[in-house]
Design a protein that fits this description.
Elements: E1 3-4, E2 13-14, E3 18-19, H1 34-46, E4 51-53, H2 62-70, E5 80-85, H3 100-111, E6 116-122, H4 136-145, E7 149-156, H5 159-168, E8 173-177, H6 189-195, E9 198-202, H7 229-240, H8 252-261, E10 266-269, H9 276-284, H10 292-306
Parallel strand pairs: 3-4, 4-5, 5-6, 6-7, 7-8, 8-9, 9-10
Antiparallel strand pairs: 1-2
Helix pairs in contact: 1-2, 2-3
Length: 313
């Protein structure tokens, strides 16, 4: 496992992180028992994964609870936990500054820890991307001074939001929507490096499309029913142009993960993990590399064939 620097006071993080959205989430991912979830976390630890991304709203608090059970006997300073604020464990949302402390206290209790390495505003309203006029950042700084969090940041989807946030707050972490088909945030990486803002790459497999398992005849339910027939056809055509790029037995999913990791500004990438097979495939991606020529091709591919299409998430 490779490790990269994270926020001050936290352990260096595994470049392959553990996206814990599936843990305890029975709305779109069924069939994972509590024991299966805990075993999956333990296997990840055995393989060197030490970064865990969760949120109160994942599985109505169950993701945090299951992580808390799974990590209860692990030496705390060897792992790094990232959670979020804004979407609550009861399914509602509250981005008011008055709700921050209660949210974090709830996460601490569910995760069974006395501090959280990083807490992110979870895709917040745009007006919260600046510290001026928002008491949120006073509360977050106070929680830092109390030792309940080591750092704070935001989960964001665009270059513009990243730049605004980095220029108008003291946030130290951004969880950015970044993959081969969504490279917009890449244009803010230089600023992140300049300001020493750590980047978590979220949705690296483009909600499953870059796993290679979907095509223009695929159908979806749950949250993925948002895609129209036109959306499905367009994504299928784009993915088809990528299928021959992985070599030497590498899967498209592994190729997609290594694309994210190829950027030094990315501290960790957080693919979802709902089975042992997925976990091991994600970790085995590290045996492959993507050369500079391929990275350049992928950036050109985005610029010329993807960017103008404004793919919906």
């Amino acid at each position: 496992m490779e490790y990269r620097e994270y926020v001050k006071g936290a352990h260096a993080v595994s470049v392959i992180g553990f996206g814990a959205w599936q843990l305890g989430n029975h709305y779109d991912w069924s069939g994972m028992s509590e024991s299966d979830a805990i075993s999956l976390v333990h296997k990840a630890l055995d393989e060197g994964v030490n970064f865990f991304d969760t949120a109160p709203g994942y599985g109505l608090g169950n993701s945090e609870k299951l992580l808390g059970k799974a990590l209860a006997k692990v030496k705390r300073d060897t792992i790094v936990i990232n959670t979020k604020f804004g979407h609550k464990a009861d399914g509602s949302s509250d981005f008011s500054h008055e709700a921050i402390r209660e949210s974090i206290e709830g996460s601490l209790k569910r995760i069974r820890t006395d501090y959280i390495d990083s807490v992110l505003l979870h895709n917040p309203p745009s007006e919260l991307l600046v510290a001026e006029g928002n008491k949120h950042y006073e509360v977050l700084e106070q929680l830092k001074s109390e030792g309940k969090i080591l750092a704070y940041g935001a989960s964001l989807d665009t270059k513009a939001d990243m730049i605004t946030f980095m220029n108008h707050t003291n946030g130290q972490v951004i969880e950015a929507f970044f993959n081969i088909l969504h490279q917009d945030v890449r244009y803010a990486f230089d600023l992140a490096k300049e300001k020493n803002v750590k980047i978590i790459a979220k949705i690296p497999l483009d909600s499953g499309w870059l796993s290679g398992k979907y095509n223009q005849n695929s159908t979806f339910d749950g949250v993925r029913s948002r895609w129209t027939k036109e959306d499905i056809k367009l994504r299928s055509e784009l993915v088809d142009k990528l299928r021959d790029l992985p070599v030497n037995g590498q899967s498209l999913a592994q190729f997609a993960l290594m694309y994210c990791i190829a950027y030094d500004e990315v501290s960790t990438v957080i693919p979802g993990m709902s089975s042992m097979n997925q976990l091991m495939s994600n970790i085995e991606a590290l045996q492959y590399e993507i050369d500079k020529k391929t990275i350049d091709w992928l950036e050109h591919f985005y610029e010329t064939e993807v960017k103008a299409k404004n793919l919906v998430w």
